[in-house]
Structures are given as C-alpha cells and as structure tokens.
Design brief:
By secondary structure, this protein is α+β, with helices and mostly antiparallel strands. The chain is built from 4 helices and 5 strands; from the N terminus they run H-E-E-H-E-H-E-E-H. The chain has one domain: Cytidine Deaminase, domain 2 (3-Layer(aba) Sandwich), CATH 3.40.140.
Length: 135
Amino acid sequence: MREGSINRRPRITSTATARSFAEAFFAQRGADRECFVVAHLDTKHRPMSIEVCTVGTLDASLVHPREVFKAAILAGASAVLLMHNHPSGDPTPSREDRAVTDRLEQVGKIIGINVLDHIVVGDDEGGSVSLRKAI
C-alpha cells in the first residue's frame, strides 16, 4: 500500500534527518498499535514513497523481508529507511527489533537495496532511537 506522494522530499543523509523524518511521520499518523513502515529512497536518499508494511498489536508487529522489499523493488528504490513505533512511548529497541534489522540488512545486501537505518519512534518525551547508532 502506498501512502501517497511525498510533498517535501528531504534528503535523508544523517541519523538526525532520519529520526526527524520518522518522528514527523508518526506524529502525523498517530498509532495505538505497532506499525512497521518503509520509506523507499532514490539514489540521493530522498523519499519516493512510504509504505505501511505491517500493523501489529500493542507490542509486536510481524515483519518479513519479502513484504519489506517487494514494494521497494517495484518502486525502483536504491535504499530504504525502516521505521516503527512503540505505542508504549519507550523507543528502546528490543532484541527482536535488532534481530529483524540484522536480517533485513542481510537481505538488502543480497538484492542490492541498502538499509539506510531503522528508527524506533516512541512518544514526544521518548523521541526516537536509531538502530544504526544503537548497535
């Protein structure tokens, strides 16, 4: 599912811009369940489209590489930015968050689509965490 065009296409070239982009997305959307979202990026790391890949429960979301990369391939993405929220408000990455990131990075290398980062978004007080920086 495409979420529509991106009116303002910021270049995502740092952890700070990735976190700001993810926080803005979830601030607009709001979510009472965990949502795993993929931003498809062009060669200059500008978003081309955003896909809500899965919507889970209060504290979990099933993520499969096939679902993550299917739309990225169809969009002609050079890279992806992975994002998901923690409805609890605490953006601390779980063991499962780290494992899925590792798996998606491996698959991305095989198919030639770079996983730029994986941002976990909490609430306004918690902010967000970059798994690239947290590892």
